[in-house]
Amino acid sequence: RNRYATDIGVRSAFAFPVFDNKNVVAVLEFFAESVFPKDVVLLSKVTHVGQQLGQVYRRERAEKEIADLNLTLERRVQERTQVILEQQETITASSKMSSLGEMASGIAHDINTPLAAITLLSSQLKDIVDDETIDRELLKSHASNIEKTTIRIAKIVKGLLTFSRESTADPFISVDARELIEDVLSLCKEKFLLQGIDLRVYFTDGDLSFKGNPSQLSQVLLNLLNNAFDAISIQEKAWAEISVKKTEEYIEFTITDSGNGIPAHIQEKMFRPFYTTKEAGKGTGIGLSISMKILAAHKGELRLNSESKNTQFVIRVPLNPINDRNVA
What we know:
Blueprint: H1 2-7, E1 12-20, E2 23-32, H2 40-85, H3 90-130, H4 136-164, E3 173-176, H5 177-194, E4 198-203, E5 209-212, H6 214-232, E6 239-246, E7 250-257, H7 264-267, H8 287-297, E8 301-304, E9 311-318
Parallel strand pairs: 4-6
Antiparallel strand pairs: 1-2, 3-5, 6-7, 7-9, 8-9
Helix pairs in contact: 2-3, 2-4, 3-4, 3-5, 4-5, 5-6, 6-8
């Protein structure tokens, strides 16, 4: 291109690539009508700029992937809802969709907040790149914050995918109790925080893996947490606690809240289908009965610990339950 450059008066030029890992995704070229000597310092700086722009490119690509994933999730939920309506598992599906509806506002807030942070940081990165002097440390800090925020959104989406998928025909697989709780909390933690409820989580040390159906178990845990939220949301200094421990035979989840327990006359009925003490429109009355069914399929149990001074439910799942689909 030398002849064309000479014709239009170009006398000096330099260029630098923008890398995504080892792939060149762009080349920035600069031209001048005057002759400038080679500037090693400048070339060194723009090389680093190219590397930083590559990180921005990766973050923006990750944002697009998350947006596409959200669209895919929405389409999958719509398709699955239609399929579920045509299946015999209508009651179970109804309970699950009800839980999703209860979580919707908290999930929207939990996703919109980090998305707003990503937008702001991306805008600031553009301003930094336009400066004559590049603050590399500030660039790294912004890029790191965008990465952390993206990971946070990805966890929320992962929790939604785990919870919303149809899994009744799935084999039992290896489940990590910490990851299971993390997925469940990604769907409901924001609701507790917005209400000012102190939500605590405790794990015993060591391996907490077992065999089970993570989608169904997340439904059980989320149902108990939603029930706890509804029961204590009007309390002052309300709190809820999740603890997980492992014995030689079982993995045990304990859900405790600041309530004063459940009266005996309600205990007798609360596991029956369609029984609820919630006001109309706030509960289907099938959450606990479905949870019992899920735990029965896992050869486990769900019980109320009436000896606790607070409201406490205990879930026990064998480390390696056997069923007809347990081939994983």
